[in-house]
TrEMBL record:
Organism name: Dreissena polymorpha
One Pfam family, short name: Methyltransf_21
Signal peptide: none
Domain Methyltransferase FkbM: 52-199
SUPFAM superfamilies cross-referenced by the UniProt entry: S-adenosyl-L-methionine-dependent methyltransferases
InterPro entries assigned to the protein according to its UniProt record, in alphabetical order: FkbM_mtfrase, SAM-dependent_MTases_sf
Name listed for the protein in its UniProt record: Methyltransferase FkbM domain-containing protein
Length: 244
């Protein structure tokens, strides 16, 4: 499983890496390679800052994007985007895993049965509106720390930008990354996080963006830059297919 995933990225020199945790419909990855379709998104500034501005000659061919999404309902679309970009010589992979602190386990993922409302699928059913009619999936977990160590660090990218919007699982994953010494600038350059306050009670965790930054400042290494950014623009994507 990991071998196949890695081989896709190794076809191209991964000068930069984008980790999209909670890919949903794949819009954030599309913003990396087709930013002209999403002019109002706040994330574009960070893609320009960390990967360099896109142009007619530079299509960010040296940016390798790895997306993880727990909700299997999105994967027909995600695999279409992946195939379209690979055919253009880009390195993009989407995988159906629940980002976690362990691998080779399974978790129940809850989602809205009404696909029009299916934005907050995750391992908690807290924000599911119709709990009597919600959809459940058994989804394999992926240890993010292990993935970074075994699949990202060997690529030796100059910069790694991460987006984390994993519907409460951040309260499992962030402490795990910290305990493994991975929240360092030379490993994960910058990270945009959405902290879901409604999940704190379930995990008995009181982490905030300021407290996370304070925790990282106490590390021996230069800390990962933490951005409190939840870019929900173009959630339904645009009508243009991933083709240029």
């Amino acid at each position: 499983m990991r071998k196949d995933f890695d081989q896709k990225s190794n076809k191209i020199k991964c000068r930069f890496v984008f980790l999209d945790l909670g890919s949903n419909k794949g819009v954030q990855v599309r913003k990396v390679y087709e930013p002209w379709l999403y002019p109002k998104t706040p994330f574009l500034k960070y893609f320009d800052d960390y990967f360099g501005p896109i142009s007619r000659t530079y299509r960010r061919q040296d940016v390798c994007s790895f997306g993880f999404e727990a909700n299997p309902r999105h994967f027909t679309r995600l695999k279409h985007i992946e195939k379209s970009y690979i055919n253009k010589g880009l390195s993009v992979s989407f995988e159906n895993f629940a980002v976690s602190n362990r691998t080779r386990d399974t978790v129940t993922v809850y989602s809205e049965t009404n696909f029009e409302l299916d934005w907050g699928a995750g391992i908690l059913d807290t924000v599911i509106n119709n709990k009597k009619n919600m959809t459940k999936y058994e989804v394999p977990t992926m240890d993010l720390a292990e993935f970074i160590r075994t699949s990202i660090q060997p690529l030796r990218p100059e910069k790694v930008l991460m987006k984390m919007d994993i519907e409460g699982s951040e309260f499992i994953v962030l402490p795990h990354l910290h305990e493994n010494g991975l929240l360092c600038y030379n490993i994960i350059t910058a990270m945009a996080i959405e902290l879901h306050d409604w999940a704190k009670t379930s995990f008995n965790f009181s982490l905030t963006i300021p407290s996370l930054k304070g925790l990282l400042q106490a590390q021996a290494c230069k800390p990962t830059l933490i951005m409190d950014l939840d870019d929900e623009t173009y959630n339904n994507d645009v009508d243009v297919q991933p083709d240029w």
